[in-house]
Amino acid sequence: MINSNTSLLRTHPSTGDLSTDSYAPSIDGSVTSNVTFGTIEIREYGMVLGDNPSTSSGPSVELDWDTQSTLTIDDIGQYESMKPARRRGTDQLAMSRYRRTKLLLDSGYSLEEILGTTNDGRNSPKKKTGISKKVLKLFSRK
């Protein structure tokens, strides 16, 4: 039986690559293969105005295809020390319609472009005008 405090992952002494022990027993007693992780590449992408129809209200945002920046890390230990201790929860990943609108306005999109793709204003000119007034009021308080 494997002790829950014992890791099967090891750092290779000369390369710093993270790997599992060869033929280390798994929890169910079977033998596992050797797996090695080398270089880690972290890419940052821009955000663009999206067209996702499942967005319930406000504009949709998507990742741009073009990479803005890339960070290459050769040492898994360095990566582990840089990343946050806890992952963000689902509630922290969801953005409000106001935050998405502000991000898009700050990225250079016009209010007309944003409103042209929002699901809650797509079919109703009256509704679109009301949203425009609310958005302008919200972002003119700077």
Question: What does the model show?
Answer:
It is a single chain. The chain is an alpha+beta fold and 142 residues long. The protein has a domain at 47-66 and 90-139. It has 5 helices and 5 strands; from the N terminus they run βββββααααα. The strands form 2 sheets. A 3-stranded antiparallel sheet has the order 1-2-3, with no helix packed on it. It has a two-stranded antiparallel sheet with strand order 4-5. Strand 1 (9-11) and strand 2 (18-20) form a beta hairpin. It is elongated. The model is unreliable at 1-8 (pLDDT under 50).
Write the layout of secondary structure elements.
Layout: E1 9-11, E2 18-20, E3 36-37, E4 40-49, E5 61-73, H1 76-82, H2 90-93, H3 97-106, H4 111-117, H5 125-139
Antiparallel strand pairs: 1-2, 2-3, 4-5
Can you give keywords for this protein?
22% strand; 30% helix; alpha+beta; 142 residues; three-stranded antiparallel sheet
Strand order of the largest sheet: 1-2-3
Class by alpha and beta content: alpha+beta
Give me the count of strands.
5
Helix content: 25-40%
**Number of helical stretches of at least 4 residues:** 5
Q: Regions with pLDDT < 50 over 5+ consecutive residues?
A: 1-8
Task: Work out the oligomeric state of the chains in this entry.
Answer: single chain
